[in-house]
């Protein structure tokens, strides 16, 4: 496998980022393209369509021989933007490379620093600030630049399809329908590149080798037909909150955070244990110090390897919402008739999410304390993903880009969150190789105020993808 010429790749990528990508990406930041879950009237507001049109215009202006740009729309679903680039000569039999990103965004939320805002692109100290800059607006630009760079350097790539969806931040509900609709056109997908991830520092290429699954449920404990004076009813009628506390104890050990349901736990593979040890060694403190703990709050464990495994291969429960509770300043002496909690479980990558959800529902509704009424609603489940072992061409290519592009060894981690697309693709194309990476770092502020993209890391990731496209085509 001959390597593609690195200087031309580097010069092409950096020129594209400086002259073409950064101005257009800044324009994309300005568009409040909220994901459909946060803008149910997205079709009427037009912001998602504006984001698609903005990037479509940029792609159409690229000088990539034979490339086709198309917006695909299925009735009642948010659109998908495609760039279809034919294989270079001699790589026609290498299958299809699918390069994935998304154009929809999280809500703006308040609390942005002075001089920054969600729809206000600001370049400062090598960072592009603004909502969607890092998650994941840059991905389509980087994928296209990688294709242009490998061609400019005289390298090869298989047929490449850049797929940019507009529902990822809503859980990609429309993606299965689009994959089914496009399956004949995509053909044999042999390599999947996802640029919606990142790692623990900006010094090396980080691969995501697993993603946790999830299960969600809203549970309501109802004890009265109507609320009553607490001085009269308490001690006679059980508290709905106490009922839920007891039910939660069936699910989670409140002292340790361990999930008690067997269906939610798996044995961690030995190769993922080794990756966790190597990741912590490469970037000590990155996991432990990633989040702004308040005051003297300690992490769950002092062992950083255990923290990483907790976040990537062990189940966790977060109470993400509640209702039936008034604001403290407005609370009277009332025994409330009900309490509702929204429960979010993150599941190990290889856990059966449907079985886990079923076990959760059973634990919440069987032998309920005081025979209180328990209602379960809003259930959702999605499997995680565990990457296949790297093929020899990919393993060799990773070593090469680590040396040539980053000057540091690549590392792999499991991601505590989910990218629904990866589970879908893993099931649909079990023989494909996967490169799940990106420019996000531990402090990139995705989903929260002051989101920013590390421009130098984004350029290096783009270079790496160019080299790995060539490695795939010439394997």
From TrEMBL:
Keywords: Hydrolase, Metal-binding, Protease. Residues 210-367 form the Peptidase M20 dimerisation domain. GO terms for molecular function: metal ion binding; peptidase activity. The keyword Metal-binding applies. It comes from the Bacteria. GO terms for biological process: proteolysis. It holds the Pfam family M20_dimer. InterPro entries: Cyt/Met_Dipeptidase, Peptidase_M20, Peptidase_M20_dimer. Signal peptide: none annotated. This is Acetylornithine deacetylase/succinyl-diaminopimelate desuccinylase-like protein. It comes from Prauserella shujinwangii.
């Amino acid at each position: 496998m001959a390597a593609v010429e690195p200087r031309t790749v580097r010069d092409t990528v950096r020129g594209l980022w400086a002259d073409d990508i950064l101005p257009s990406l800044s324009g994309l930041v300005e568009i409040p393209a909220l994901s459909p879950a946060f803008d149910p009237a997205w079709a009427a507001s037009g912001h998602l369509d504006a984001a698609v049109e903005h990037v479509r215009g940029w792609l159409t202006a690229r000088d990539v021989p034979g490339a086709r740009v198309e917006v695909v729309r299925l009735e009642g679903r948010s659109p998908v933007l495609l760039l279809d680039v034919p294989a270079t000569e001699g790589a026609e039999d290498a299958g299809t490379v699918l390069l994935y990103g998304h154009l929809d965004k999280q809500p703006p939320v308040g609390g942005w620093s002075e001089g920054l805002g969600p729809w206000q692109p600001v370049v400062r100290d090598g960072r592009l600030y603004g909502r969607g800059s890092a998650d994941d607006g840059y991905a389509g630009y980087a994928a296209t630049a990688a294709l242009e760079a490998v061609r400019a350097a005289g390298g090869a790539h298989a047929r490449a399809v850049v797929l940019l969806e507009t529902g990822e931040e809503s859980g990609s509900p429309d993606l299965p329908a689009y994959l089914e609709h496009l399956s004949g056109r995509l053909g044999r997908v042999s390599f999947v590149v996802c640029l919606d991830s990142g790692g623990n520092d900006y010094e090396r290429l980080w691969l995501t080798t697993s993603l946790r699954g999830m299960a969600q449920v809203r549970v309501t404990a109802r004890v009265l037909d109507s609320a009553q004076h607490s001085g009269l009813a308490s001690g006679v009628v059980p508290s709905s909150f106490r009922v839920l506390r007891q039910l939660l104890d069936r699910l989670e050990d409140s002292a340790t955070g361990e999930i008690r349901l067997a269906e939610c736990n798996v044995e961690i593979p030995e190769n993922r244990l080794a990756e966790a040890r190597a990741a912590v060694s490469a970037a000590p403190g990155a996991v432990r110090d990633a989040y702004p703990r308040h005051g003297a709050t300690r992490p769950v464990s002092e062992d950083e390897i255990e923290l990483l495994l907790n976040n990537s291969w062990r189940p966790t429960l977060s109470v993400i919402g509640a209702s039936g509770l008034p604001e403290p300043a407005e609370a009277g002496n009332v025994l409330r008739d009900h309490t509702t909690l929204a429960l979010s479980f993150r599941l190990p990558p290889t856990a059966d999410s449907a079985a886990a959800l079923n076990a959760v529902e059973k634990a919440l509704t069987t032998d309920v304390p005081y025979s209180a009424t328990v209602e379960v609603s809003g259930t959702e489940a999605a499997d995680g993903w565990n990457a296949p072992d790297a093929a020899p061409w990919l393993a060799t290519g990773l070593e090469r880009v680590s040396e040539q592009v980053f000057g540091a060894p690549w590392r792999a981690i499991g991601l505590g969150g989910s990218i629904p697309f990866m589970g879908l693709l893993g099931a649909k194309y079990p023989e494909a190789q996967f490169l799940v990476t990106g420019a996000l770092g531990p402090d990139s502020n995705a989903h929260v105020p002051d989101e920013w993209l590390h421009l130098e890391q984004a350029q290096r990731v783009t270079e790496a993808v160019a080299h790995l496209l060539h490695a795939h085509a010439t394997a």
